[in-house]
């Protein structure tokens, strides 16, 4: 470290008061006092709410605010919804809303929850003939069900619990590697804590059971538990959503080229996403624009959802689109199938005041309903993106929505903003075009 430079290392940071943490970190900024004031400015005015937010995480300094919006006019299985979305990217909510409006006039979104099974694994190393392990499974499974009853009782009352216990032999992939895979139904909760608690209990049962089991000798008595953890890959927690209409109904989406040309180009765009992983990644990213925004608004774990979605997209050995298209005769059907482990009870869903509000806005859905809603939003966003891509391109709409951000970068006044909005209704938005306009207004 150069002489005179302040060290950025610290001991006991977590023990410091929030204010002291803020002051400490701000000393490295050129405008320390201003930084403290700015960060404090984002504290919630209600100290109880702020404390709640602080306690969600660790070493909290302030709140990072994101726009919370509504995409209205969704018709899902005949029911109307206004969907709360938390997202910072311009034009995502606009795209979702446009798709929602179009499809609400063409039969709405249809959904089917295919399955709701989640799983977790106790990964362990054991050296012995696999038949011996397989042989103890019936007895071990009974013991596991009995010993986890105190953890599963409430879940069982709500209609969930442990569904299956399986021994999987992976010794062909890694020496002596086995896992006990446990399948769960967690009803309306995402269930991560429930699953992990069960798995840790199961690991301790396994550790006790094997050494004392009659017939296990020498090294067979030794089981090395490596880890016990849920799997975020939930291909059996799967939802399907689709839209369909006659091709002629698509004409309004591309007045210049007409319905047939639009449907053909749209189909080609989906086929490209199915065969080209470079395109598939962006195509799926557009789906997660919608799904993540709903996950955030409802206090769900968007990292788990994303990780799972991308693994699912690679399930056949190459990364592909999560959507599929069928054009049969004059019928256009566009489908998204995606695994979504989402919850409406537990976690942040009822703790975060805005997550709670989001669920209220959605009519207090159950876990399955939230899977439907999030999947629909993903399909709506993707449909909007692909529609734009194969017609006028993405930038016209995107830059129109981004205009405010550019204006704010120039610290435009309200009057300048108003003039710019009128000007750019019939001019192409770009950073330099906005810069030029602002300069001319100010000169
Ligand atoms: C941008 O956030 C998402 C898109 O790139 C998705 C897509 O290309 O399908 C517009």
Give the topology.
Elements: H1 18-26, H2 32-41, H3 47-56, E1 68-76, E2 79-86, H4 92-104, E3 110-126, H5 130-147, H6 149-157, E4 161-169, E5 177-185, H7 192-209, E6 223-231, E7 237-246, H8 259-275, H9 277-297, H10 302-313, E8 323-328, E9 331-339, H11 353-361, H12 367-390, H13 395-409, H14 414-423, H15 431-442
Antiparallel strand pairs: 1-2, 3-5, 3-6, 3-7, 4-5, 7-9, 8-9
Helix pairs in contact: 1-2, 4-12, 5-7, 8-9, 9-10, 9-12
The structure holds (R)-mevalonate (MEV).
Q: Notable features of this structure?
A:
two-stranded antiparallel sheet; 47% helix; globular; 443 residues; Alpha-Beta Plaits; seven-stranded antiparallel sheet; binds (R)-mevalonate; alpha+beta; 3-hydroxy-3-methylglutaryl-coenzyme A Reductase, Chain A, domain 2; 9 strands
Descriptive overview:
This protein is α+β, with helices and mostly antiparallel strands. It folds into 4 domains: 21-65, no CATH class; 68-115 and 237-392, 3-hydroxy-3-methylglutaryl-coenzyme A Reductase, Chain A, domain 2; 118-230, Alpha-Beta Plaits, CATH 3.30.70.420; 398-442, no CATH class. Helices cover 47% and strands 19% of the residues. The chain has 15 helices and 9 strands. It has helices at 18-26, 32-41, 47-56, 92-104, 130-147, 149-157, 192-209, 259-275, 277-297, 302-313, 353-361, 367-390, 395-409, 414-423, 431-442, and strands spanning 68-76, 79-86, 110-126, 161-169, 177-185, 223-231, 237-246, 323-328, 331-339. Strands 3, 4, 5, 6, 7, 8 and 9 form a 7-stranded antiparallel sheet that branches. The chain is globular and about 90 Å long. The protein starts with 17 loop residues before the first helix and ends with a helix. The structure holds (R)-mevalonate (MEV). (R)-mevalonate (MEV) is lined by residues 89, 282-283, 285-286, 289, 385-386, 389, 394.
């Amino acid at each position: 470290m150069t002489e005179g430079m302040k060290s950025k290392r610290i001991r006991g940071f977590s023990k410091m008061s929030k204010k002291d943490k803020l002051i400490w970190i701000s000393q490295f900024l050129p405008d320390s006092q201003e930084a403290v004031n700015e960060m404090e400015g984002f504290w919630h005015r209600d100290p109880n709410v702020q404390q709640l937010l602080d306690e969600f995480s660790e070493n909290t300094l302030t709140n990072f605010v994101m726009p919370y919006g509504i995409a209205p006019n969704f018709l899902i299985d005949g029911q109307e919804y206004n969907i709360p979305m938390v997202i910072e990217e311009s034009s995502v909510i606009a795209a979702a809303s446009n798709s929602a409006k179009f499809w609400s006039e063409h039969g709405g979104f249809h959904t089917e929850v295919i399955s709701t099974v989640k799983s977790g694994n106790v990964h362990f190393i054991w050296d012995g003939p696999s038949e011996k392990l397989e042989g103890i499974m019936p007895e071990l499974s009974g013991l596991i069900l009995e010993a986890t009853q105190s953890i599963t009782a409430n879940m069982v009352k709500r209609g969930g619990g442990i569904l299956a216990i399986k021994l999987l032999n992976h010794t062909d992939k890694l020496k002596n590697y086995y896992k006990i895979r446990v399948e769960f139904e967690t009803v309306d909760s995402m269930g991560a804590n429930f699953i992990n608690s069960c798995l840790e209990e199961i690991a301790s049962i396994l550790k006790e059971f094997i050494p004392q089991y009659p017939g296990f000798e020498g090294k067979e008595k030794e089981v090395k538990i490596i880890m016990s953890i849920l799997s975020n890959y939930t291909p059996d927690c799967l939802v399907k959503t689709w839209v369909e209409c006659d091709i002629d109904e698509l004409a309004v989406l591309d007045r210049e080229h007409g319905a047939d040309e639009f449907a053909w180009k749209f189909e080609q765009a989906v086929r490209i996403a199915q065969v080209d992983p470079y395109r598939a990644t962006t195509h799926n990213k557009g789906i997660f624009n919608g799904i993540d925004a709903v996950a955030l608004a409802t206090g769900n774990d968007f990292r788990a959802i994303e990780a799972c979605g991308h693994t699912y997209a690679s399930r056949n050995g190459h990364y592909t689109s999560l959507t599929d298209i069928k054009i049969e005769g004059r019928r256009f059907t566009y489908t998204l199938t995606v695994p979504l482990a989402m919850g409406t009870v537990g976690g942040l869903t009822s703790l975060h005041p805005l997550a709670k509000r989001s669920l209220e806005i959605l009519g207090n859905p159950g876990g399955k309903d939230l899977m439907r809603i999030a999947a629909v939003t993903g399909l709506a966003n993707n449909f909007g993106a692909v529609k734009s891509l194969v017609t006028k391109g993405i930038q016209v709409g995107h830059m129109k929505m981004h205009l405010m951000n550019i204006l704010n970068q120039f610290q435009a006044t309200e009057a300048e903003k108003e003039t710019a909005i009128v000007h750019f209704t019939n001019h192409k938005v770009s950073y330099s075009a906005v810069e030029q306009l602002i300069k001319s207004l100010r000169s």
